[in-house]
Amino acid sequence: MALETPVCDFGQAAIDFALPGTDNKIWTLEDCRGENGLLIMFICNHCPYVKAIMDRLIRDTNELKQLGINSVAISANDVADYPEDSFDNMKTVAEQNGFSFPYLYDESQEVAQAYGAVCTPDFFGYNKDLKLQYRGRLDASRKEAAPADVRRDLFEAMKQVAQTGHGPEQQIPSMGCSIKWRAA
Q: Name one Pfam family in it (predicted).
């Protein structure tokens, strides 16, 4: 089921976590933060919305790193129902795509729930004080990549955050597959 992210709750504090990465290291919020901010991305391996933007996601996170914005990706899907999203497959996806950011596994789904993540991809852009400034889309891509010359919404917003500490007032929600929660 395709969902849209809610409106940005400006100033909401980032929530700490300690999650295993595909590099076999345990990563915390502090480990991930950059000098000018942090982009937290809830993604997964199987989602067509994520697959459609993978090359753009890698391009934008690499360029944001040059601006002092680090990135981290978290997968929280129920792997019992979605085995393509398993930790071993996450390692393969990270390696095949040359991730320059940590790719973390939220097996308990507690981190995704704490953040209020609803879909993949779901982007949370924080300033240097780890206060939320962006909760929008990467660009106009959906299940297929948008034209190459499309506005880079996330990149432009996070560039503004790096420069001013504040995200744009107008943000277009991200859209993607629902997070695959485990049955209660």
A: AhpC-TSA
